[in-house]
């Protein structure tokens, strides 16, 4: 059972739409309202064209189990992730982020709702530290790996 990551493509749109509108996903998201298929298609197509955004699909044995997105903002990557609803409770998020973050030398960050304890454990497992809390959102960061070697 090996986890792999591959770049998202247009064929992944519907699956990501379903995961995005899952009630548990929406509860953890900063934007918790359901979205329409049309809204998602516009966002997804724009995301695939955005050179500063990368969306990856995590697979185990060829089955999609989650997604990781990173947005380059200034000099750091803002991470976001979702685990497929049927795959929750299997430590998939931790495996995805550990695998993904091990390949990134640059600074990384994540913004997590204060009551999202599973995501807090995930970011701490990849070496992110709490930077600040603003209005119920926890801001986690990990310095660039190259700076930690100096």
Describe the structure.
The chain has 150 residues and is of the alpha+beta class. It has a single domain, classed as Gcn5-related N-acetyltransferase (GNAT) (Aminopeptidase), CATH 3.40.630. It is 34% helix and 34% strand. Strands 1-2-3-4-5-7-6 form a seven-stranded mixed β-sheet, with helices on both faces. The radius of gyration is 15 Å and the shape is globular.
Into which percentage range does the β-strand content fall? 25-35%
Number of strand elements: 7
What is the rounded distance between the termini?
A: 36 Å
Count of alpha/pi helices: 6
CATH architecture: 3-Layer(aba) Sandwich
By CATH reckoning, the class would read: Alpha Beta
Oligomeric state of this protein: single chain
Instruction: Give a short account of the largest sheet.
Output: 7 strands, mixed
Average predicted local confidence, pLDDT: 90
Biggest sheet: strand arrangement: 1-2-3-4-5-7-6
User: Class by helix and strand content?
Assistant: alpha+beta
Please mark out the parts with pLDDT under 50 across 5 or more consecutive residues, or reply none.
none
Write down the overall geometry: globular
**Rg result:** 15 Å
Core attributes:
150 residues; alpha+beta; Aminopeptidase; seven-stranded mixed sheet; 7 strands; 34% strand
Question: How do the helices and strands line up, and which of them pair or pack?
Answer:
Blueprint lengths: L2 E5 L5 H9 L1 H6 L8 H13 L3 E8 L2 E11 L2 E8 L8 H10 L5 E7 L3 H9 L3 E6 L2 E6 L2 H4 L2
Parallel strand pairs: 4-5
Antiparallel strand pairs: 1-2, 2-3, 3-4, 5-7, 6-7
